[in-house]
From TrEMBL:
Inhibitor I9 domain location: 33-105
Residue ranges occupied by any Subtilisin-like protease fibronectin type-III domain in the UniProt entry: 666-763
InterPro entries, per database record: Peptidase_S8/S53_dom, Peptidase_S8_His-AS, Peptidase_S8_Ser-AS, Peptidases_S8_3, S8pro/Inhibitor_I9, SBT, Subtilisin-like_FN3
Compositional bias per record (Acidic residues), positions renumbered to this chain: 190-200
Subcellular location(s) per record: Secreted, Extracellular space, Apoplast
Protein name in UniProt: Uncharacterized protein
Location of the active site: 144 (charge relay system), 209 (charge relay system), 548 (charge relay system)
UniProt GO MF annotations: serine-type endopeptidase activity
GO biological process: proteolysis; response to symbiotic bacterium; response to symbiotic fungus
Organism: Populus tomentosa (Chinese white poplar)
Keywords: Apoplast, Hydrolase, Protease, Secreted, Serine protease, Signal
Amino acid sequence: MKGYTICYVLFPILFVAVLVESAGAAEGEKDGVYIVYMGAATSSSKNDHAQLLSSVLKRRKNALVQSYVHGISGFAARLSAAEAQSIAKTPGVVSVFPDPVYQLHTTRSWDFLKYGTDVVIDSSPNSNSSSSSGGYDLIIGILDTGISPESESFSDKDMGPIPSRWNGTCVDAHDFCNGKIIGARAYNSPDDDDDDDDDDNTPRDMMGHGTHVASTAAGTTVPDASYYGLATGTATGGSPGSRIAMYRVCARYGCAGSSILAAFSDAIKDGVDILSLSLGSPASFMLDYKEDPIAIGAFHAVENGITVVCSAGNDGPSEETVTNVAPWILTVAATTIDRKFESNVVFNGEKVIKGEAINFANIGTSPVHPMIYGKSAKKTDATESEARNCNPDSMDEEMIKGKIVLCDNDDDSYTFYSKEEEVRSLGGIGLVLVDDKMSGVASNYNEFPLTVISSKDAPGILSYLNSTKNPVATILPSTVVSQYKPAPTIAYFSSRGPSSLSRNILKAKPPDIAAPGVDILAAWMANDTEVTLKGKESPKFNIISGTSMSCPHVSGMAAVVKSQYPSWSPSAIKSAIMSTASQINNMKAPITTELGAIATAYDYGAGEISTSGALQPGLVYETTTTDYLNFLCYHGYNTSTIEVISKDVPDGFTCPKESSVDLISNINYPSIAVFNLTGKQSKNITRTLTNVAGDGNSTYSLTIEAPSGLTITVSPTSLQFTKNSQRLSYQVIFTTTVPSLPKDVFGSIIWTNKKLKVRTPFVASSR
Ligand SMILES: *[C@@H]1O[C@H](CO)[C@@H](O)[C@H](O)[C@H]1NC(C)=O
Ligand SMILES: *[C@@H]1O[C@H](CO)[C@@H](O)[C@H](O)[C@H]1NC(C)=O
Ligand SMILES: *[C@@H]1O[C@H](CO)[C@@H](O)[C@H](O)[C@H]1NC(C)=O
Ligand SMILES: *[C@@H]1O[C@H](CO)[C@@H](O)[C@H](O)[C@H]1NC(C)=O
Ligand SMILES: *[C@@H]1O[C@H](CO)[C@@H](O)[C@H](O)[C@H]1NC(C)=O
Ligand SMILES: *[C@@H]1O[C@H](CO)[C@@H](O)[C@H](O)[C@H]1NC(C)=O
Ligand SMILES: *[C@@H]1O[C@H](CO)[C@@H](O)[C@H](O)[C@H]1NC(C)=O
Ligand SMILES: *[C@@H]1O[C@H](CO)[C@@H](O)[C@H](O)[C@H]1NC(C)=O
């Protein structure tokens, strides 16, 4: 269908967003699936839950979609808007909201997964893939599209018996589970009316995404992995010693919030250690914490000692695009690795222009194919801009047939896949796309000769096309460039901070950490014809990009840390990963964005993961339940709501009298954000560090990296620990030296002893 805009193609969730908004309005509310959230599952909540549920079920048959009783209390049910409203008023109900649909965080939506894309798992170039038993016997739960158990990455060779604490199971998955995949469940999406699509009932992966993510987190070591010879190497997950429990919550149309909440509840009961979610809402559609099943589920998972790692989203590089920002979540941005896939253009005899793409072009290495600029093939009723962008129905078939077409990509109405389709359907034999946004990310075009060049190289080709009557060129098949410099860089698509949700809070909450998420090779589902080259066997690995791919790198790492320090809380693990991150690339220069600017905490949080560092952080910030509850107070929830939400409310807890959002800066988080800092004002922030170094006596001294416009005073200036588990606090006073900071500014507070460095990034803003 023509006139599909990129918005609809990429974000089917927008339909849902519209639906949700209208459901929230007084007029025009809709009947549909609603989630009724009743806080933590406690013995006292069980009665409320049972009563409310039975009253709902009396009203209508088949109303119930999901019921949550482990860790989380509540249910999802088909309700009228009036019923939803009346249930919302029932005591014990925290919130009632329409079931949202989330999207996977690959750079392509599922709509385009079928074109094949980039895959495979390999660990970060700077990382030291510890031992092959990394993450020994930890259990990583993954909420995704399912898993392909045939993959060699999920072999259970050398894995001992399943840990006896495991309380999960494999449902509707015959011959599915082994010593590596120890749990598998699937959830029916409530809105999937698609009759011919019974895929929902199995944890088998029909899309590839879940298989890729699972093998990145915990795949066993597979030598000689590649995508048809590209990126050949040993594929290993972040914690090859860990077990996998797959919770299939996504189908073609997206990932239902009601399913996600059910998976969280099951995972809590099953006894996973880490949860990994490579999905979320788009930046345009942020949900408040108590209406966001990911935030809700993660809160209760963390209450139960489970570390929750989520992707930050692919809506960068604009600010305020980061998603999954609740402070109990570890939020992951994406970086490039030191490997590129080059598919170059040869024209004008010997001239070569570098292009980036994964293709197996076979039109020869000699520049003998006629080439044309889209604009030169303009149809009379199309605009010049449409034609040079190779938009559907803008170019003349006779002019395109048999030629390589040069296309711009500077209007956002169509995806480059629709341009590819248009050129192919008009008989074009190749496509050179001019696009800086794609820089650093090689998409997969299989056999079609398509490559992406930078705009700075475009004038060279354009003037050649202009200069001769019969211009000729060719597109070379991809080759791999390794040890590429600089790396890592922040992926163009990676979502940025600050959070648009609660300013002070983690505005401080940009992404927390960054990890490889560009052109990652990892296991792929079996028999996927869309990524299979003609006449070849289907690939066992694939190369894809997204914060979806960076998230499981960190999940694997969290498992490795947890296996070494089983008693550490999720916040201690998060702190260890953040305070030891790196800000330096492989040229010993500061990590930059894809476009070359020095990266800030808004781009990568604390920095790029350092696998060795996180195992020896020295000191950690422990964010307590009280911190999280205070956070909810500051965010605007009252004491009675919070008492329902959390099972761990300390006796006598009440929200502080002055619960302003400004106070969010004070929760004991491994990064600091202060906002509203104007007119030579000061803000006084407290942080508390816990000694986990294991050697008892240790003195840390202070270094401050302060941006201009800001004075930072820290006291004390030395932290002298005398025993393990000891906690010491320090104060930081931020003072502006100018009436108003010109923009948000960044810096860090670093505590070092002779061996270890504990870095705390901060952002300060007048906004
Ligand atoms: C990797 O491990 C080796 C041996 O333990 C060590 O010498 C090396 O410095 C480590 N490299 C990194 C990047 O941590
Ligand atoms: C183990 O699972 C059963 C149901 O399968 C559940 O009743 C029980 O509470 C679970 N145990 C734990 C410790 O969560
Ligand atoms: C191509 O030629 C036209 C007219 O001959 C001229 O207007 C245009 O600027 C040229 N473009 C390039 C990129 O050289
Ligand atoms: C893939 O296809 C082959 C050949 O048709 C078949 O034998 C095999 O069972 C299929 N594998 C899966 C996982 O569907
Ligand atoms: C707490 O907030 C909820 C939801 O906004 C509201 O319904 C309730 O009345 C409030 N309770 C108190 C004691 O203010
Ligand atoms: C900033 O300060 C003003 C006045 O002091 C207050 O009303 C506002 O809520 C604050 N905003 C944030 C984001 O803290
Ligand atoms: C900052 O706050 C701490 C803890 O509340 C307090 O002890 C300290 O005196 C304060 N410092 C200033 C300069 O206000
Ligand atoms: C740390 O130092 C103190 C005094 O210097 C000493 O009494 C104590 O035993 C030491 N603790 C450890 C664990 O070494």
